[in-house]
Amino acid sequence: MKKQNCLIYCNCGAGIIPNEKQNTLAESFKELNVDVFELHDICAFSVNEKDVLHSFENEYDKKFIVACYPRAIQNIFQQNKITLGNYEVLNFRELTTENIVETLREKTLENSSETKYEVLKSSLDVPAWYPVIDESRCTLCGQCARFCVFGVYKYNKKSLEVVNPLSCKNNCPACGRTCPASAIIFPRLPENSVLSGAEPGSKEEPAKPEKKEGLFVLLNERNNARRNIFKQGVVQQAEAEKLKAIEEFKKGLEKK
Q: Given this model, what pLDDT does residue 245 score?
């Protein structure tokens, strides 16, 4: 029989929130009358230990996840084929510790049996830095795959996949910056932006073309989005990030 609910806390190793806040959250969660699983971290478990995440679906009806942007978490799970069923994400990038704890106290139902607090660390020995595709926005233009030189993507005109996530170079979000549809997410990116998983919608963000429109309209809007990216200096920034990643990759080879 499943328990009513649990809390999955992503103790992110990317420094996207201050260490003090991470520690305060962990201590606050120990006072809740609910099973808590502190993961180091969700990005790593999603590519390296999926069975751990799947086990939560088998054991609990409702999962509360304290992590980064809900859009990022949703697409991490979708990309890595992880099914968690009924879950709710509380965004520690934007919510205060007090807001998160108060919400959990209001929403979590007390488990009838004794509760536990477990700290789970991934065995992954490299940073879990990789791109996540938001398929609801992706137009299959292939810009990200063409821009990346590390073989992270597999692309044809009918599909785009992240096939080698750990081939992506740590702290290089360059391919995502060139995406005209803002469909690439880097969950571990420190900046609070659409690129790290915030919901698109600001005036600066290019809207995803609707597929019901004609081919000419789609191509025209895509080209306009690309021109806007270039005008804003984003391509230049992406090129600089890519060159830096290549240099660090070469240095790594020289050390071996």
A: 73
Q: Which two tokens stand for residue 79?
A: 């990309």
Average pLDDT, the chain: 85
Closest by alpha carbon to 179, among 236, 239, 128, 139? 139
Q: Which of 69, 50, 67, 68 minimizes the C-alpha distance to 58?
A: 50
**CA atoms of 165 and 76, how far apart (whole Å):** 11
Helices (H) and strands (E) in the chain, counts: 9, 9
CA dist 124 and 122 (Å) reads 5
The dihedral over CA atoms of 111, 114, 117, 121, expressed in degrees to the nearest 10, equals -100
The answer for residues whose C-beta is within 8 angstroms of residue 180's C-beta and 6 or more apart is 139, 141, 143, 206, 222, 225, 226, 229
| Neighbour tally for 221: CB within 10 Å | 19
Handedness of CA 109, 110, 114, 119 (dihedral sign): positive
Inter-axis angle of helices 215-231 and 234-255, to 10 degrees? 70
Where the chain has pLDDT below 70, the residues are 109-112, 202-235, 249-251, 253, 256
Question: What pLDDT shows up at residue 211?
Answer: 46
Residue type for 65, please? Answer: I
Tell me if 193 sits within 8 A of 234, measured CB to CB.
Answer: no
Structural domain boundaries in the chain? 3-121, 132-255
C-alpha distances (whole Å) from 2 to each of 49, 111, 240 are: 22, 10, 50
Read off the tokens for 186: 């880097």
| pTM of the full structure | 0.80
